[in-house]
Design a protein that fits this description.
6-stranded antiparallel sheet; alpha+beta
């Protein structure tokens, strides 16, 4: 109330002064009526003017609270305070929403009578104000209050609470009547304002309904163009929040079989909380979202405590995430055919009672959203199906293009409709050349068979891996395996699907395996080298070659043709002349130079024979070495003019050469084994004879001595006894020498020949050996000449060198025919050389190469005896000391044996 208004009553007064008289009360009521009538019909203005009339005239502060539409809550809508210092504290004190069924306000609303509250406890007030204002409570200037009802037409609209300071007088009856009258008049004004507001709200509701209808039409039109679920969520949430005046919204989608609702879209003040708490919501958890989905009905939360009452744990999570949950919210299921595809959420800033129109609008919005979501899902499924079909077609096309097998699609008249790259590679015709034409791979001889196969496919029969023959573009026959199937395209004629696999290589491999298996049997049939060579030559003729030659290295290492075979020539067993003639025909194709080069390098040579070479020869040929155990025995040549040779033919020829080389080597080893057996038998015969001879002679001498002793009991004449003992000594010496040779052979063969090296003067050893031979030289009448270098010292094995010198001098005496023997020793800084020369029978040139081999000799054992081991043992010992032994001899002239030794044996 303004000062001018007060002055009309006379002097201004306020609470605590003398109570106003009846005239003054009437004046105040008149002023209140005028003031309330002057304000607009807006309820907030009515309530503010009423508080201005009460303070400070009738109290230190006042607050006007109105009940919510459901009558359960009281919310402060207007207030006034006489003290600016206490106004923040007072505003905090009256700000909280109160329950209408608790405290003094509940009693006032129930009874319709004012209620005097003499004092409010500070602790009770502490619960109503924030912590920063607790210090002001001790200086609170008013703790006593009068609570009056706002009544009109028999119902309470709210309460008017007026406070006074503790020192002020309590409200008198007249003041209470005056305040109640003011409250009643304010209630009437408020009722009129509310009626006006209701009428205006009705008009606004109509406008809102029309707006909502227009917006719903726009949403529906926009949803009709939406193609994806995220876009549906965006349109519904953004348009819906604006349409219903919500502070935020969210859209959750349930994926089939996922068991969870996932947030697709959220907006508004609650976006952070919705994303953090409700980003992914398991359907088994309790929440408004899952309840609306599970029960397929809306969940309306119209009051601040509704969420806490129904979902206390969720309310606590929301409080921790944001501070306080939304005072009001609604979750609307997105239903299609009774099944929830998701849910739509709207939150509001104030407690919100949803009227029937608003509920209908929200449910209709959810319905349109669900229909759009279902359409989007169907479209997505259709797009995925089309993409999968397109991908399947692309995959099928890629498979057909990448298939290693030829894939053909034919009309029933044989016209080609599909021809993949493998068919191009296999048969030589490109797709452009084959498509639309009769199948070109069928040769004239196979045309009837082809027609029969097509008729079978038309009748439903299939071919599974049938082996047949096709034709390459250049006329080359191709062995193929064929699979067929009947194809019935929708709305089209019956077609034949054919899959062909080139089995030419497999056939060749099988033929090669059969050929090699047969060759193995043929080669194993004989161990005779000549027969084996002939069999090797005839193995590949005429199957793989028109001519085949077998070449072996001779003693000089040169290639020599030892067997041939030609197509149409005689079988194995041909005469040597025929073989040579065949060789003359076969050799020119690869040439002896090629054969020698293959034998030297161990590498095969291939001439395909597709074109004329430099010599004008178009024949194809192969040359492969015969190798076994790391050695090259010779070479095989194959020649043909019927077809070109390729890498497969080379592989077959190499495998055949390995088996042939093994057979030749086996035949050679068999021959050597037979020869070794013969030599062994001969050696055993000689050994038994040689070992028996000295024993027989020794036995004869003993018998002669015994006979002489019997004839002359008084004793044997000294000369006779001496000759007999000398004969016994010679035979014992010979026997010992034979046994030692056998022991040396055993040690050398077992690798147990040990050397005992020491500083040795070879000249002195030669003299010592010569002295031991003086009786033998005298007996045989053989002159011995020694020519010895003065310095012939080295590191050698004395015993082994003694054995070598003894053997050489013994042979010189034995085969020298009593001709002079010369032993000449020369020396250099690095080596020494000993020559033992005799003028005896000599050695033929054909025997020189094998003279130092085991069991070898150049003379008859019956005339000269011995095992044929002496020179072999001598060679082994000399070579063990790092030296070399050789012979130079001419038949009938004599022989010279040369021993060279390094001064330091190694």
């Amino acid at each position: 109330m303004t000062r001018s208004a007060v002055s009309r009553w006379g002097e201004p007064w306020q609470y605590g002064a003398q109570a106003p008289e009846v005239e003054e009360r009437l004046a105040l009521l008149a002023e209140a009526s005028r003031v309330l009538a002057d304000v607009s019909l807006e309820p907030p203005a009515v309530m503010e003017r009423l508080c201005e009339l009460v303070v400070p005239l009738l109290g230190a502060a006042c607050a006007l609270r109105l009940t919510s539409e459901d009558g359960r809550w009281l919310r402060t809508v207007a207030s006034a305070s006489a003290s600016p210092e206490t106004r923040p504290l007072f505003q905090s004190l009256i700000a909280p929403v109160l329950r209408a069924d608790e405290g003094p306000s509940a009693e006032v609303l129930r009874s319709g009578q004012p209620l005097w509250v003499p004092r409010q406890e500070v602790e009770e007030l502490r619960r109503l104000v924030p912590p920063q204002h607790h210090g002001l409570l001790d200086r609170l200037p008013f703790t006593r209050s009068l609570v009056l009802p706002l009544r009109t037409r028999g119902r309470g609209l709210g309460t008017l609470t007026v406070w006074r300071e503790p020192a002020a007088a309590p409200f008198e009856a007249g003041e209470q009547l005056l305040l109640q009258e003011l409250a009643d008049r304010a209630a009437q004004a408020l009722d009129v304002a509310r009626a006006y507001a209701a009428e205006r709200r009705a008009r606004q509701a109509a406008e809102v309904a029309a707006g909502r209808l227009a917006r719903l039409q726009r949403v529906t039109a926009e949803l009709s163009q939406v193609l994806t679920a995220p876009r549906v969520a965006e349109v519904v949430v953004d348009q819906g929040v604006e349409a219903v005046g919500a502070r935020g919204g969210g859209f959750w989608l349930v994926e089939p079989g996922d068991g969870q609702a996932r947030l697709l879209r959220c907006t508004g003040e609650d976006s952070r909380m919705l994303t953090g708490v409700f980003g992914v919501v398991p359907l088994e958890h309790a929440s408004p979202i899952t309840e609306s989905i599970r029960d397929a009905r809306p969940v309306w939360l119209e009051t601040p405590d509704a969420l806490a009452l129904r979902f206390p744990e969720l309310a606590e999570r929301c409080r921790r995430a944001q501070g306080s949950p939304a005072p009001s919210s609604v979750c609307l299921p997105l239903l299609v055919d009774g099944r929830a595809l998701g849910t739509l959420l709207f939150t509001f800033s104030e407690p919100h009672a949803f009227d029937d129109d608003e509920r209908a609008f929200l449910e209709l919005l959810a319905h349109h959203a669900a229909q759009a979501l279902a359409r989007a899902r169907l479209l997505e499924q259709e797009q995925r199906a089309r993409a999968a079909l397109r991908e399947a077609h692309q995959t099928l096309a890629a498979i057909i293009q990448a298939s290693p097998a030829a894939i053909l699609l034919l009309d029933m008249d044989g016209t080609v409709r599909l021809w993949n790259p493998a068919a191009e590679r296999m048969f030589g015709w490109t797709a452009d050349e084959a498509l639309g034409q009769a199948l070109p791979v069928v040769s004239a001889s196979r045309h009837e068979e082809f027609r029969h196969h097509l008729e079978g496919v038309a009748q439903g029969r299939v071919l599974a891996g049938v082996e047949t023959e096709g034709q390459h573009r250049d006329g080359t026959p191709i062995q193929v395996a064929l699979w067929t199937a009947r194809v019935c395209p929708p709305g089209g004629p019956v077609q034949c699907l054919g899959i062909l696999v080139d089995i030419t290589g497999r056939r060749r491999s099988e033929d090669a395996q059969r050929f090699l298996a047969g060759a193995g049997g043929v080669l194993a049939a004989s161990l005779e080298q000549e027969e084996t060579l002939e069999r090797v030559a005839h193995l590949a003729v005429p199957a793989y070659a028109e001519a085949c030659g077998v070449f072996l290295a001779d003693e000089a290492g040169e290639a020599r043709c030892v067997a041939t075979a030609c197509a149409g020539s005689s079988a194995p067993g041909s005469t040597q002349a025929q073989a040579l003639e065949a060789a003359a025909q076969a050799v020119p194709a690869p040439g002896l130079e090629v054969v020698s080069r293959a034998m030297a390098s161990g590498e095969p040579a291939l001439h395909p024979g597709l074109e004329l070479d430099a010599s004008g020869d178009a024949r194809a040929w192969l040359c492969v070495p015969l190798q076994v155990r790391g050695q090259t025995l010779g070479a095989l040549t194959f020649v043909t003019s019927r077809r070109p040779y390729d890498a497969r033919d080379l592989e077959l020829a190499q495998e055949l050469s390995r088996r042939a080389a093994l057979a030749i080597d086996n035949a050679r080893l068999y021959r050597e084994a037979r020869q070794a057996i013969r030599l062994r038998e001969e050696f055993l015969s000689i050994a038994s004879h040689e070992l028996k001879t000295p024993i027989s002679a020794l036995q004869l001498q003993v018998q002669n001595l015994e006979a002489a002793l019997k004839r002359s009991p008084s004793g044997i004449p000294p000369d006779r006894l001496r000759r007999g003992l000398e004969a016994v000594g010679r035979q014992l010496k010979r026997q010992t020498q034979l046994v030692n040779e056998l022991l040396d052979v055993s040690r050398i063969s077992a690798g147990r020949l040990e050397l005992s090296l020491e500083p040795l003067d070879l000249g002195a050893l030669v003299r010592e050996v010569a002295e031991r031979f003086e009786p033998e030289l005298a007996r045989t009448g053989t002159p011995l000449e020694l020519v010895l270098a003065p310095d012939a010292v080295g590191q050698w094995d004395r015993l082994r060198l003694d054995q070598v010198l003894t053997n050489l001098l013994s042979n010189a005496v034995k085969y020298g025919r009593s001709q002079p023997v010369r032993m000449e020793l020369t020396a250099t800084d690095e080596r020494v050389r000993l020559d033992v020369r005799d003028g005896g029978i000599g050695i033929g040139a054909e025997h020189l190469s094998r003279l130092f081999h085991r069991f070898e000799r150049a003379v008859s054992e019956r005339n000269y005896g011995g095992f044929g081991l002496g020179l072999w043992i001598a060679r082994q010992m000399v070579e063990a000391m790092g030296g070399h032994i050789a012979v130079c001899s001419h038949l009938g002239v004599g022989s010279t044996f040369t021993v060279e030794l390094p001064r330091a044996a190694g």
